[in-house]
Amino acid sequence: MKKLLCLGLSMILALSCFTACGGGNADAGNADATVFKIGGIGPLTGGAAAYGDAVNKGAQVAVDEINAAGGINGYQIEWKMEDDEHDAEKSVNAYNALKDWGMQMLVGTVTSAPCIAVEAEAVNDNMFLITPSGTAVDCISGANAFRLCFSDPTQGTKSAEFIGTNKIASKVAIIFDSSDPYSTGIKDAFKAEAANQGIAIVAEEAFTSDSKTDFKVQLQAAKESGAELLFLPIYYQEASLIIQQANDMGYAPKLFGCDGMDGILGVENLDLSLCEGIMFLTPFTANAEDAASQSFVKAYAEKFNNEVPIQFAADAYDAVYAIKAAAEKANVTPDMSVSDICDALAAQMTEITLTGLTGEITWDASGEPNKEPKAVVIKNGVYEAM
To answer: Where exactly are the structural domains of the chain?
Structure first.
């Protein structure tokens, strides 16, 4: 009987230890109820690192400002960013690492495919998520999730409207990544709206993640189609190769992209003269003259060795301030559970109006933002508002 009693007690103790050690419990990590812990996930290394690096730095500027002004409801913020290398599996691993750290709210992820994977985890935990730049529709499929940027369909629609309204081109070729939900989502919406804008899609050329270094076939097809403009709903790395290869073959169409084009001026060994005239949608430009933008640019440069922030930094900055606005409206405190914090923030997100770097923003019940689109053109090596 003593042996059986000891065995039973041992099993109870073992189960108690397993439960206390987390086992995937989102509320297990934050033992410090005196600070808010906001996590971030995105590519800090790899081909999309410019995006994640900007998000990390933009969020840090916001956190530092908020803490200096007294925090959220009197509580300071801790910020921690994890690298996912723009990989869905690694992004889930990063999410779990942040849960162990005690994350209560997530700014992320930065890119679409990883965000879709992480949102599936976050919705199960009822963890509040606001993605600064994940544009795929499924990035915010749950009631816990919101978006700071435009969705892929919105970017595609607004791009076609901008090109049509401003009569930039009537014959357009599209080069897109058929293996990427970001690229295909924008492409499909662009095509649907192009017909309403008097735009003829004269070529539609695909590539995949396994074949994204040689674009001669796609460019030749676009050239032969008589396209005046290339619409590139892709990331800046592939766009930089397309620009160089088009130049090599003597093809010089107009170029129009979306937020993935941001970062093109930072590509190593790229002849920046080839970037002149590139147009793309963006909610933020560093040379904007309003006081808020200039204050942010100054703080960013002072903190990060005179770097100039791109739109991803501004998106992250606004995302952190959106959390602050919703948390203060809901009177959220750090001793609340992750799930209770999520419910409180989600309820208030549709009630706040944020005057941010990327515009005046409200959110609807689906988590989508409402704000005005903007576009820039590259002139003399810098972005200028169109």
So the answer is: 35-149+291-372, 153-282
Q: Are 42 and 54 in contact (CB under 8 A)?
A: no
Q: Return the closest-CA partner of residue 163 out of 287, 253, 246.
A: 253
Would you say the CATH fold of 153-282 matches that of 35-149+291-372? yes
Tell whether the model's pLDDT for residue 22 goes beyond 50: no
Contacts 24+ apart (CB under 8 A), 291-294: 292/355, 292/356, 292/357, 293/357
First CA to last CA distance, the chain: 83
Which tokens is 373 given? 């689109």
Q: What per-residue confidence (pLDDT) applies to 33?
A: 82
The CATH code of domain 35-149+291-372 reads 3.40.50.2300
- Residue-wise DSSP of 64-107: HHHHHTT-BTTBEEEEEEEE-TT-HHHHHHHHHHHHHHT--EEE
CATH of range 153-282; options 3.40.50.2300, 3.40.50.720, 3.40.50.300, 3.30.200.100: 3.40.50.2300
Polymer length in residues for the chain: 386
Joined together, the tokens standing for residue 209 give: 């993640």
Q: Which of the two residues, 16 and 367, has the higher pLDDT score? A: 367
Contact status, residue 41 vs residue 95, Cβ threshold 8 Å: yes
Cis amide bond preceding 131, omega within 30: no
CA contacts within 13 A on the Cβ side of 248: 12
Distance CA 244, CA 360 (A): 37
Query: CB neighbours of 224 closer than 8 A, spacing ≥ 6?
Result: 203
CA geometry: angle 352, 64, 351, nearest 5 deg:
5
What pLDDT is attached to residue 285?
87
pTM for the model stands at: 0.80
Q: Is 301 exposed, middle or buried (0-12, 13-18, 19+ CB in 10 A)?
A: middle
Task: Residue 268: count other Cβ atoms within 10 Å of its Cβ.
Answer: 5
